[in-house]
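Ticket #328: bound-state structure for adenosine-5'-triphosphate.
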Amino acid sequence: MTNMSHIQSAPNRIAVHKASAAAEPLLEVTGLSKSYGRKQALQNVSFTLKEGSSFGFLGPNGAGKSTTMKILTGVVKPDQGSVKLFGEEIDSNPGAASRYIGYVPQEITLYERLSAWDNLEFFGQAYGVRGAELRKRMKEVLEQTGLLDRAKEEIRTFSGGMKRRINIAAALLHRPQLLIMDEPTVGIDPQSRNHIFDLIRGLNRDGVTVIYSTHYMEEVEALCDEVAIMDQGMVKAQAPLGELLGRYASQAIYIEAAGMPKPQIAPGITSVRKEGSGWVLETEQAEHMIKLLITECSKHNWNVKKLEVIRPSLEDVFLTVTGTALRD
Ligand SMILES: Nc1ncnc2c1ncn2[C@@H]1O[C@H](COP(=O)(O)OP(=O)(O)OP(=O)(O)O)[C@@H](O)[C@H]1O
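RESOLUTION: The complex was predicted; output attached.
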């Protein structure tokens, strides 16, 4: 029954020792490999997740993000490797982790002919939330997702974005400490996207750790403090966002000036390339270079039309780390 995948996805409970949380990473993933027939979806995937972080899993379609998320939530078994939650192997205790993990799969898993309220009641009970606590949580998650006023309406009358928000609400009923979301904004309206972003930021502020899988770089830049870059079944890099930008992408200056010839590579400039009617100069000393360029332009009477600093972006990081642009 496909609608059950929320529940099937979450491993059963294990005794997770919260006391060890300070010493252990929340999640430690080591050497995951997975093949579907001859297709190797994952090759030796490893990463760690700190409690309280907002972790972006960035990669193109087919990179292996969903397979990784499904392994973390117990839907798919890896061929090799381990997943530890607070230092404890999830696999060794098949009861586990559902208390800690909320999973929002890529596919919408709701009953179309039931109301939002009835869907939430169903999923809440399946997660073991009951009675007055369940009713309280249903109201809270409907408020959090901005859909309290639509609670009694059937899901089939909802837009794709609203369905997605109810899907997220269902994964929150049991107050998970780790929320895993697999491409939650694909194909939805901007209003729902904003609701989802606000929700994630709010949850994160309240201490919920979030894993957010996406192929949209701007979403990772807007939401995440830690990033894993995934391509062709491998994690190519993992670091805090600022560190990745500093390590794999350099600052640059764009200059467009009438009469200006190609700038020479000089100390402080690592590369020069043509872009449109101007030049892009990669440099670690943007301020200093801007002053030099202004002096040179005024000395030679090159009329400056545009001069700006280009911030390093995840796009540059992705290109450096994988050798390809992030394609849709
Ligand atoms: N059940 C399956 N059977 C066969 N191949 C699969 C299966 N699930 C995934 N794959 C393949 O494994 C690779 C990784 O897929 P996965 O869904 O994990 O990637 P993804 O990064 O989540 O991409 P997408 O956003 O398209 O889901 C792809 O080549 C995909 O076609």
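RESOLUTION NOTES: Residues 250-311 form a domain with the Alpha-Beta Plaits fold (CATH 3.30.70).
TICKET STATUS: resolved
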